[in-house]
Amino acid sequence: MEQAETSEVIALDDNREWWQKVDVSKLSGDARYRILRYVVDKYGRKRVLEETGLSRVTLWRLIEGKSPVRPEYIEPLLKLLTQEEFENIPNIIDTLGRIHKITSTLISLSRQD
């Protein structure tokens, strides 16, 4: 993946772990859901409950799509993934690309004013 696609979601200029640099609030609800599903499938519900502090009912509601996956639920799960896994989760790359395009467009428009 090119750096340009991740630069808006992952801050690349500091010494923190990659997952600490991710601005999960910029990920779409669908992207956050896919991260949750990936981590649940890889590590199981018990591990997700331990990492997030969610109740079993809340996790069920998230997995079933009954409740939105909020950014604060995803932040602790990112440390379970490698950066490569994160970038390869389906639709994450598409989401990052769209964020970059939108940001670029906004910057261009603001320069015209």
Radius of gyration: 15 Å
The stretches of 5 or more residues where confidence is low (pLDDT under 50) are 1-5
Number of domains: 1
Ends distance: 32 Å
Percent strand = under 5%
The helix/strand series, from N terminus to C terminus, equals: HHHHHHH
Count up the helices: 7
Profile the largest sheet.
none
Give the averaged pLDDT, no decimals: 80
Count of individual beta strands: 0
Helix-and-strand structural type: mainly alpha
Structural description of this entry:
The longest helix is centred in the last third of the chain and has 21 residues, at 92-112. The chain has helices at 3-6, 29-43, 45-52, 56-63, 71-78, 83-88, 92-112. The chain has one domain. Helix 2 packs across helix 5. With 113 residues, it is mainly α. The chain is globular. It has seven helices and no strands.
What order do the helices and strands come in, and which of them pair?
Layout: H1 3-6, H2 29-43, H3 45-52, H4 56-63, H5 71-78, H6 83-88, H7 92-112
Helix pairs in contact: 2-3, 2-5
